[in-house]
Amino acid sequence: MADDRFLVVGLGNPGPKYETTRHNAGFLVLELLADRIGGRFKTHRSRADVVEGRLAGLPVVLAKPRSYMNESGGPVKAVASFYKIPVERVVVVHDELDVPFGTLRVKRGGGDGGHNGLRSTSSALGSREYARVRFGIGRPPGRQDPADYVLRDFAAAERKDLGFEVDRAADAVEAVLTDGVEAAQNRFHAG
Fold first, then answer.
1. Is the pTM of this model over 0.85?
2. Could you give the CA distance from residue 19 to residue 27 in angstroms, rounded to a whole number?
3. Could you say which residues are annotated as the site Discriminates between blocked and unblocked aminoacyl-tRNA (predicted)?
4. Catalytic positions, written as ranges
5. Which domain holds residue 16?
6. 70 annotated among ligand-binding-site residues
């Protein structure tokens, strides 16, 4: 039954040019979640790559929009509509400038904070009331343009810990699914 399914969306940009950039943190987490359920992303007519399976014992659809970040909403809405998943059961994983690298934040709803992928997603869904797993990438150094910063690869020091941080973010997604946003906040906001 579709009603008990969750949709977990990772935001990022398609193509090898962006694969290892900060803006693709959501895609990195979704790749790990696909590994956890033993699935491979397949092209879907919704302009997203999807994997269906069970995560933490719950039925999920994992999706990576094939659009650029600022146009993520159309594919997210199309996947949610196709699988008949209500906004309350949508979890979006994305990079977050306002959170330091090595820090995760979980929340439901709220603004987009200048994040074009969130703006597009909220607009397309007609709601901001989806859960978010915010993967901290920190602010750019000095006067570097944030738009340039998010499209750069993680720094060498960050890459050293990136696998661990992606794993923690995947754990946070599972906690949101199994225990809810508040419990996930209590677990992952410590420290």
1. yes
2. 8
3. 13
4. 23
5. 2-188
6. yes
